[in-house]
Amino acid sequence: MIKRFMYLIMTGILLFVLTACGSSSKTTYENIIEDKEMNFAMTGAYPPFNFIDDNGDLTGFDIDIANAIANELGVKAKPITTAWDGIIAGLTGKKFDMIIGSMSITEERLKEVNFTSPYYYDGAQFFAMKGSGLNSIEELKDGKVGVVTGTTFHDALKEMGNIKEILQFESDVDNIMAAEQKRSDGLVTGKFVGLQAPQKYSVDLEPIGPLLYAEEIGIAIRKDDTKLLEEVNAALKKIIEDGTYEEISDKWFGVNILNK
Question: Measured between alpha carbons, how far is 35 from 235 in angstroms, rounded to an integer?
Fold first, then answer.
């Protein structure tokens, strides 16, 4: 009787272990399909790509793209806001499934994560207040320029000998306000973000000089999630081909920002 009882207990434990192992061996893509939900990260502070609107709702180009991709996968998109300087660590630490937050594809980042095909093209642009008298960022002497922490813009400014101080901010809103308050000589941000600042924040900001460099923007996915990368790329391709992407881009920018 005791032997039979012990046998039943051991059998139960074995079944539990096997079930647990089977569950943990599922891929991220399989979990997304099973749960009918994909969660993605962004800062929520990068208008017009991702931001909190006047009603307190998270909105923007990135959000619409995420929803369109989720629709193709047959699931619901769940946004998660997080600080930019820890967003890759959050992805590799499995706090969310992917980053759809206007992240540029760089060699350094490719060492840690994979990227989809670009879902838009942007560029680093120097902006200053109107009346600055500047024609390019190179004209600054002992310049004080703002960037958002953890961006490629910071790395680019470090290479410029005429920039004395790089001010770092948690969001582009803070960065723009610092320029308006004359705490900086200007700022470097994405071209589309800066161009919309005058209307959105009522600031007399203008682009100065040519792009510092161009960027490809992609969706970041963990290295081992190859099936998820394949499916998200396929969904992205589908919304580009069927016109959904162009509708979203036109809604936010009036142009197709996938065109170089």
Answer: 18
